[in-house]
Write a structure and sequence with these properties.
Helix content is about 30%, strand content about 20%. The protein has eight helices and 16 strands.
Length: about 400
């Protein structure tokens, strides 16, 4: 009766295990998404929640709102993102952003693996983002200015509409219309402090803007040494123009940085051919390396340390054996009265030791055998290993 019951238990457990495995969510993969970016310009890619929400197997609603989704991104075959790329997502119910400013060293193709998690059903959806970084057509912008916006977080300035609004405000101060956003960085990445959890407190964002035209007098005066001195005193810097950033953006003018970049000459790189030999051309392999005589190098490597060790041993032996003073030299350099005094003390000590060894005096009582007048028993007062304090002197 036990064998059939045990068999039915195994069958039920297998069915339950199979059903639970069938209920586990699958892992879906979206088609690759290819984008391009120029060097010296801000790159922003928004991870749209709606795109991944439609790819999930089940739509889980929480009070009418979409399920929370979190993202993880890393470079293909690497545990982290490239050094020029950053990821930010403030809340699982908000979109995520991949942003950064590639330089000339990052020219090429970067494959980013993006994985979306449904926090309610634990479903996952993967997508590969292929970013192609190409050199900027006009090169790097020579005039660059960096502004610190104190009333914004980094994800609030990443959308294209927010960047366009900031450029329009910067154009009024720069007096140029060819402005471009070069980079956007959170103040926390520059060593800023995390704001208190109070409504209205923001982390702050550094926005670097570039142009091919020179800086306006307003920007030059705001970054002058006189303005820096006023900022060190806690005062506002000198400004000869109207602050067109207000009221949307609170720019901290004491943190304004102006930079003029000059194009650096680059050496021409190697010219790569087609890889196919021309007609009639034969491949000429490199000649063999001429034989080299390694015996002198081996002897130098082996004999020089041995010679140095031998010289050190000879020097040490000379100092220890040939430079000893000896008794005779010591006595010659010592005064006669000191020698007599030393000899007298030494002789008297030897004489006392000899007299103590030959004297005949009665032995101390502590070394004599102990006698019991009642029983006549004698016990050695200095017992050996065979007897000791456990042997009683008096009868019990």
């Amino acid at each position: 009766m036990e064998a059939p019951a045990l068999r039915w238990a195994w069958v039920l457990a297998a069915m339950a295990l199979g059903g639970s495995r069938a209920a586990l969510p699958d892992h879906r993969v979206l088609p690759d998404h290819r984008v391009s970016s120029d060097t010296g310009a801000i790159f922003v890619h928004e991870l749209e929640r709606e795109l991944f929400q439609e790819a999930f197997l089940t739509g889980h609603e929480d009070d009418g709102a979409a399920a929370p989704i979190t993202f993880q991104a890393h470079l293909r075959d690497h545990p982290d993102l490239p050094r020029w790329l950053r990821y930010i997502q403030r809340d699982p119910r908000q979109p995520g952003f991949l942003y950064g400013s590639p330089t000339a060293a990052e020219v090429g193709t970067h494959a980013i693996e993006v994985l979306a998690y449904n926090r309610h059903t634990y479903e996952t959806v993967a997508q590969r983002l292929v970013i192609t970084v190409v050199p900027a057509p006009g090169g790097e912008l020579p005039y660059q200015g960096e502004f610190l916006v104190g009333n914004r977080n980094v994800e609030e300035l990443l959308p294209a509409a927010a960047q366009e609004t900031f450029l329009q405000a910067a154009a009024g101060v720069w007096e140029r219309d060819d402005l471009h956003v070069i980079n956007i960085t959170s103040a926390l990445d520059r060593g800023g402090r995390v704001p208190l959890p109070i409504e209205g407190r923001k982390e702050g964002v550094y926005v670097k803007v570039g142009s091919r035209g020179a800086f306006s007098p307003c920007l030059v005066s705001a970054a002058s040494p006189q303005s820096r001195f006023r900022c060190s005193l806690g005062q506002q810097p000198l400004a000869s123009c109207y602050d067109t950033f207000a009221p949307h953006f609170t720019v901290r003018w004491c943190n304004l940085t102006l930079l003029q970049v000059w194009p650096s000459p680059t050496a021409p790189g190697p010219r790569w051919g087609s890889g196919v030999l021309e007609e009639g051309g034969d491949f000429q392999p490199p000649t063999e390396a001429p034989p080299q005589d390694l015996l002198p190098s081996y002897l130098v490597t082996l004999l020089v340390p041995l010679a140095v060790a031998a010289l050190l041993c000879l020097l040490l032996g000379h100092l220890m054996c040939c430079r000893r003073e000896g008794v005779q030299k010591r006595d010659l350099e010592t005064s006669d009265i000191q020698l007599v005094h030393h000899t007298t003390i030494h002789g008297d000590t030897e004489e006392l030791r000899h007299m103590a060894g030959t004297r005949d005096v009665p032995r101390p009582l502590s070394t004599l055998p102990m006698f019991n007048v009642r029983t006549g028993q004698r016990i050695n007062p200095m017992p050996g290993p065979s007897d000791g304090a456990r042997v009683p002197l008096l009868p019990q």
